[in-house]
Amino acid sequence: QVRLMESGGGLVQPGGSLRLSCAAVGPTASIYTMGWLRQVPGKEQEFVAAISETDDSTYYGNSAKGRFTISRDVSRNTVYLQMNSLKPEDTAVYHCAAEKGIDATAMGALLGGYEYWGQGTQVTVSS
Fold this sequence. Notes:
Elements (H helix, E strand, L loop, with lengths): L2 E5 L2 E3 L5 E8 L7 E7 L6 E6 L6 E3 L7 E6 L4 E6 L8 E8 L4 H7 L5 E2 L3 E5 L2
Parallel strand pairs: 2-11
Antiparallel strand pairs: 1-3, 3-8, 4-5, 4-9, 5-6, 7-8, 9-10, 9-11
């Protein structure tokens, strides 16, 4: 069993930056493709970014391209999402997800039903 624990959310002004962390706890936590999705009440879940289990290749949703960067620290079983140039429309609950046996692009296509899912961390972008 793998548990995903997100942190790093908060309130930031437009144009600011945040770094989210997702720590994977469990016996095989390092061997998963991991990603971030975000949820706004009343709207569909949106894929943000993912990083592959085999080669650390990455894939980004349209809203994240050029502004967000996903990375992994294998020694800490932790995935990070560096978010720059934040906009009010980035306000959401950001969830970490993990899935084995797929790459980052495939994770982006799934849009749900992931093997493991975190509780989420709130990101609010407001002046």
